[in-house]
Design brief:
A: about 140 residues, alpha+beta, 2 domains, B: about 290 residues, alpha/beta, Pyruvate Kinase, Chain: A, domain 1, five-stranded mixed beta sheet
């Protein structure tokens, strides 16, 4: 029986890679089933389950939050999103970034422990230098 | 002259600091490896999506997506990726120098600059320097995710689509090796997709659902996001590498300070003993004399 190579990748890493007898994916226009030697196709995916059936009839399922589906006769690639997407959600994220910018540029810089540690180190260094100077005077 | 006790407590405090810096060095060293793996993990996605963009642009010569069109430049945008935390040597300072240089170059030509900042250090820096900041994203942690970057990227893409900015660049540190990182400026928009050799010769096309133009829009957005994400991950690897080196030299310096203080302590101790002996001898001489 013919198989088709399946790669499910996201920007943050590979999710699944292997051969399959059949792949089901939640395309934005309805679920598609992809068998080997499918015509080349490109479509968007909506949130849902991608099912990969192996030759032995075992089925593996992956939940994706959307993405792109690229089909070539012997290769299926799913470019999965790592977050829920949508124009409104993206705009909300943009708005949040803007607000964060305004807040960050207005508000006082937050003091971190690391910054304190740097200050302490500088103080110790200054003390040491001063003590060396005193030594020189003696 | 400082007393013995005072010097002893100074030595103890420097030793504590040395412990901290050497621990930070070890932590950074272990995180480099992880960050490098994350960098590698982002590669298959980037390759795939670049190929899809290539096919789409080639299949639709009539449809001109704004992301692919060169426009006259009136205003440019920069996404600047810095670290969230300091103590990583000159990593951020070098990058800001490059960024300021690039910004000044545009401003000399009378072109305005918009910024989107990633990382707390960039926010602090441009708060002092001034600049038109459209969006920020900070506190990404050890594993930056695309999710956290979307907002900061989206403000720039929106601005580009509205025609406010005509070029978009991302500035981040490039991981050359664990010992060497250098700031680079990567053009994002208008995006030019280079096709691999031989790809153009094949005359086949996809079936598109819903239609090619819409898909192109989605794919290009993700393509740009994946590039910025890669920049963020790479910058994190740079941060850890620079931190390791900086903390190593801090540990060494602390060692030197301890040596110096130890010497001073020994001298002070000896001086006290000498004084005591001379007092006793002097006293004894007075009694017997």
């Amino acid at each position: 029986m013919a198989t088709i190579k399946v790669d499910i990748v996201s920007a943050e890493g590979e999710i699944h890679s292997g051969d399959a007898a059949m792949v089901f994916a939640p395309a934005s226009m309805g679920e598609v089933g992809i068998a080997p030697r499918h015509a080349p196709m490109l479509t968007t995916l909506k949130p849902g389950e991608v099912r990969v059936q192996t030759e032995e009839g075992e089925e593996e399922a992956f939940y994706i939050t959307g993405g792109m589906l690229e089909i070539q006769p012997n290769q299926v690639t799913i470019l999965a999103d790592t977050a829920l997407r949508g124009d409104q959600l993206d705009e909300a994220a943009a708005l949040a970034a803007q607000q964060q910018a305004e807040k960050a540029l207005e508000g006082a810089a937050d003091e971190t422990d690391v910054a304190k540690a740097t200050a302490e180190l500088q103080e110790a260094r200054a003390r040491y230098r001063a003590s060396q100077k005193m030594k020189g005077k003696r | 002259m400082a007393g013995e006790k005072e010097i002893r407590s100074k030595i103890a405090s420097v030793k504590n600091m040395q412990k901290i810096t050497s621990a930070m060095e070890k932590v950074a060293a272990s995180k480099i490896r992880k960050a490098q793996l994350q960098m590698e993990a982002s590669r298959p996605y980037a390759q795939r999506i670049r190929r899809v963009v290539g096919h789409l642009t080639q299949a639709n010569p009539d449809y001109k997506h704004p992301y692919l069109m060169q426009r006259e430049i009136d205003r440019v945008g920069f996404i600047i990726i810095s670290t969230d935390r300091g103590l990583c040597g000159g990593l951020n300072a070098n990058m800001f120098k490059t960024a300021i240089g690039a910004i000044a170059e545009w401003q000399e030509k009378g072109i305005k600059v918009d910024l989107s900042l990633v990382g707390a250090k960039a926010v602090q820096f441009f708060k002092r320097m001034g600049g038109n900041v459209l969006g920020t994203a900070s506190h990404l942690g050890d594993e930056p995710s695309v999710n956290e970057l979307i907002g900061a990227i989206r403000v720039m893409l929106d601005s580009y689509e509205e025609g406010a900015i005509d070029r978009l660049y991302v500035i981040h540190n490039e991981f050359v090796s664990a010992m060497s990182q250098k700031p680079i400026i990567v053009p994002l928009l208008p995006c030019t997709v280079e096709l691999e050799e031989g790809e153009l010769q094949e005359h086949w096309d996809y079936l598109y659902e819903p239609d090619a133009a819409e898909l192109l829009d989605d794919v290009l957005t993700r393509y740009i996001e994946s590039q910025v994400y890669r920049g963020a991950v790479e910058n994190f690897a740079c941060e850890m590498a620079a931190k390791m080196v900086a903390m190593k030299s801090a540990t060494d310096n602390a060692g030197e300070i301890i040596d110096g203080l130890q010497l001073e302590y020994n001298k002070a101790r000896q001086a006290a003993i000498t004084q005591e002996i001379s007092e006793i001898v002097g006293g004894a001489a007075a009694v017997s004399g």
